[in-house]
């Protein structure tokens, strides 16, 4: 028996919603912008993990230092609490997302792994149980539990983190006309570094402004007012401080807005940049500009995307070869 699960890349924060908004991405060219995890029963007596993919060389050599091992232990522990004992498995990670990219790389691996393991063992964990475990595992990497990457990666769409006892996240309407340009320059910004650069305290004016922008964004999505939603995608919490970690960000934003982008922001902790456009031709022009001027090395890439409304998905093993 073998299971293979794909989990898409995601944008955390969406500029206006620090730690409480996230969106899953789906390139319009059909490419898999996300990680894939395979699970099968061919392990020879103990847990086994192998990896492949464009960014697999960035992973630790010791399989037990990989987050997938923690995913296996986490699922095993939860199933043991349900009276289900599981044996060792073999896992394979197709690492398609760069680490420290601001595209939810760790979230993608975690979501794909937990979902694949749960399916492999007969789907005993419901969606809420899986998502809470995914958040805990993400917290092991970032230092605190937050769901702005794992939730959209798992559920799909644009997610608002409600974090209530009975509802961890809520799906917001996605503007059908929007295209999302996403460009990873090829350098790394660690989440810890990006968080350390933020101030300990914010002014009352910043807090009020942040609340106003976020409330208007959510209202605009439900009202179908796409222009208002885009106009308030302004980050007053993180971007003023984190932009110094992104070479060329300010110049790129200025040019993308000139080309017709509605909004430009930092994807998660960066260094990936995203731009929102309501016209495919504009999006392609922005993508071409980013590919030429924002990417810094051969590891960088740029995509025109839509919102991935599905989230995790099973993939045929033949599609991966």
UniProtKB/TrEMBL annotation:
Binding residues annotated for ATP, in chain numbering: 98-108
Catalytic activity: L-homoserine + ATP = O-phospho-L-homoserine + ADP + H(+)
GO-annotated cellular components: cytoplasm
Span of domain GHMP kinase C-terminal: 237-293
EC code: 2.7.1.39
Keyword Oxidoreductase among record annotations: no
GO biological process, one term: threonine biosynthetic process
Family per record: Belongs to the GHMP kinase family. Homoserine kinase subfamily.
Name of the protein in question: Homoserine kinase
Source lineage: Bacteria, Pseudomonadati, Pseudomonadota, Gammaproteobacteria, Alteromonadales
Gene name as annotated: thrB
């Amino acid at each position: 028996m073998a299971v293979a699960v794909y989990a898409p890349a995601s944008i955390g924060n969406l500029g206006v919603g620090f730690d409480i908004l996230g969106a899953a991405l789906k390139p319009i060219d059909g490419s898999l912008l996300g990680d894939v995890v395979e699970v099968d029963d061919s392990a020879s007596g103990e847990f086994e993990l192998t990896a492949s993919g464009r960014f697999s060389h960035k992973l630790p050599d010791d399989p037990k230092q990989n987050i997938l091992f923690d995913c296996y232990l986490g699922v095993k522990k939860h199933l043991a609490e349900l009276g289900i004992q599981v044996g060792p498995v073999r896992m394979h990670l197709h690492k398609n997302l760069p680490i420290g990219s601001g595209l939810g790389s760790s979230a993608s691996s975690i979501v794909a792994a937990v979902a694949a393991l749960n399916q492999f063992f007969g789907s005993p964990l419901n969606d809420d149980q899986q998502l809470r475990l995914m958040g805990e595992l993400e917290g092991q990497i970032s230092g605190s539990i937050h769901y702005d990457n794992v939730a959209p990666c798992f559920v799909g769409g644009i997610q608002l983190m409600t974090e209530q006892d009975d509802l961890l996240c809520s799906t917001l309407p996605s503007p059908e006309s929007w295209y999302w340009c996403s460009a990873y320059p090829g350098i790394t910004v660690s989440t810890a570094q990006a968080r350390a650069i933020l101030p300990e305290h914010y002014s009352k004016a910043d807090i009020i402004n942040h609340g106003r922008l976020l409330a208007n964004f959510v209202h605009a999505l439900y009202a179908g007012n796409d222009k208002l939603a885009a106009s308030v995608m302004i980050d007053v919490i993180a971007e003023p401080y984190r932009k110094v970690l992104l070479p060329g960000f300010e110049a790129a934003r200025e040019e993308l807005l000139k080309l017709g982008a509605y909004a430009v922001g930092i994807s998660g902790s960066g260094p990936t940049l995203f731009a929102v456009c309501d016209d495919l031709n504009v999006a392609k022009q922005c993508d071409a500009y980013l590919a030429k001027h924002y990417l810094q090395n051969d590891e960088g890439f740029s995509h025109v995307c839509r919102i991935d409304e599905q989230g995790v998905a099973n993939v045929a093993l033949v599609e991966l070869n």
